[in-house]
Fold:
Amino acid sequence: MKPCAYTKQTLLDHSIGSYEDLVNFKLFDDNYYRVVSRRLESVGISLSAKEVKELIKDLILLHDLGKAGEYYQDQFDDECNTLNNEQPSFLYHEIGSALFFYNDYNAKREIRELLALASLNHLNAIRGIWSYTQLMLPGFDERMLKLERYGNVLLEGLKDKLSSDAKIRNYSFDDFSIMIESLVKRNMKYKYHKVYILLLAPLLVGDNLNSLKRNSKGSRFVRLLLKGEYNEDTSL
Structure:
């Protein structure tokens, strides 16, 4: 049932599955959340380890919210089968996810910015985007940011798992431009943007582990994780 994350996979299934796979993998324990809490405190953001854990849970559950855009969902029937037997595309879906976190997630501004940065970078697709304009995003369609219809269906399915109630709306490319301009300016002034990677790391693991169930080969990143061979010096 729509919204869909991929062929024959609902977005709700992928969202919950990504978090469950992260928990079951047991790479990120309470010690990790305590470290993140201390690092956030060092840049002026006060969150307990428990609050950090809930924040990361919300991030993983909602990281693909941008896939709820009408542009993407128009590729599927109600059973998440692709129309015309074409492989679906989710190009730029992280923009919609980031706009939700930046504008409408229930948290202080600094936290919303960190979540937006993690969401933008979870595919390594938007890194270094600071000077982008709409003309520099070939194939961009504003229907990619029309999230209200299907996004709220996902949020309803996740309401008992999220830390607080959430609602989503439709966005525009102007909203994206405003977000990027603000992130650039504040990144030059504040140090806390450097710690978003601590939120991104568990998201990358959970997302990739769940995607492995759809693609049995998986990425090199996942294969190294499963073999226990990944370390900070490993080139991805």
